Amino acid sequence: MTRFLVLLATLLIVPLAATANAIRVKDLVEFDGVRGNDLVGYGLVVGLNGTGDGLRNAPFTEEIMTNILERLGVNVTGEQFRPKNVAAVIVTASLPPFARVGSQIDVTASAIGDASSLLGGTLIMTPLNAADGQIYAVAQGTILPGGAVAEGQAASVTRGVPTSGRIPAGARVEREIEFELASLSTIRLALREPDFTTASRIETAINNEFRSAVATMRDSGTVEFGIAASRARSPAHALSRIENILIEPQRKARVVIDQSSGTIVMGSDVRLSRVAVSQGNLTLRIEEAPAVVQPNPFARGETVIVPRTNAAMDEEEGIALAELPDTTSLSDVVAGLNALGVSPRDMIDILKSLKTAGALHAEFVVQ
């Protein structure tokens, strides 16, 4: 009985360990044709509390306002009106795949004139066009700005971006994208990060799932799946089985550095060759302290400024020459770099030098 329990525990643990780092196929690929489409429109925001466009600096705002009023039956030809509660905006949205007529999507409105805030504004009915010039949605609603402004007579403070905001469910779909998934006999899976090993593993996992050679790796970024050969009820049923298959992807060793914040991110496959490193800081300081020289009282002469410069060069005590041995894991790399006792900013310089010396075996990305 004890042996049976040990064997059962072993069988339960092994599959969990094998899939500990597994990721779903849907998180690694894009299905060919199943994609969103970008929409854009030009509209008018009204109801602002004196924070709208200055019409002298934004004549296009006056033009679109005139057009809207004329469509509503209000004749303003030849009239001089310069309100401060309107602003011209560019409206953007993304039409998701398989969006149907009547469904609603989020939109973003951004001021293009000199409006200082869209707080409290309402977007007037704005048609949204796709790249083919056709209208696919119409947007309208109250804007939720991405920031706020508080000001007084002598100071002001701004948080976020008050000249841009979102309208949740602010556009209604009026036209559908013509794409018939049910008519496809094959579909391509495009890897977000092309890799031959990952593509091969996806191919093998799909074929094992359907117990047939229904998937073929075309290149490092494409796996072709035969829907007809899978004998699924429909392409949608086949894709629902594919997207939840678990595989362990293979990625390039990569070091990502954000110089603005001093952030360093290293992948688990980063390796170092045996190398010696020394680091120190050299500071050059120059100070100007000009002196004013005046003549004696009642004496002839002029007041002059005599330049005086103090220059110094200081070299801070750096680390001694330290050896980083051959490493086999990320923890060894981190331990070796931490042994140098340097700050993250100095570590960035060390990593750059290691890459230049050919001792850092990873893709180096600097942002």
TrEMBL record:
Pfam families: FlgI
One GO term (biological process): bacterial-type flagellum-dependent cell motility
Cell location: Bacterial flagellum basal body
Superkingdom field: Bacteria
Listed GO MF terms: structural molecule activity
GO cellular component, one term: bacterial-type flagellum basal body, distal rod, P ring
Major site of localization recorded for this protein: other
Record keywords, A-Z: Bacterial flagellum, Cell projection, Cilium, Flagellum, Periplasm, Signal
UniProt signal peptide: 1-22
UniProt keyword Signal, yes or no: yes
NCBIfam families xrefs: PRK05303.1
Subunit-level organization: The basal body constitutes a major portion of the flagellar organelle and consists of four rings (L,P,S, and M) mounted on a central rod.
HAMAP family: FlgI
Family: Belongs to the FlgI family.
Functional description taken from the UniProt entry: Assembles around the rod to form the L-ring and probably protects the motor/basal body from shearing forces during rotation.
Protein name: Flagellar P-ring protein
Organism: Pontibaca methylaminivorans
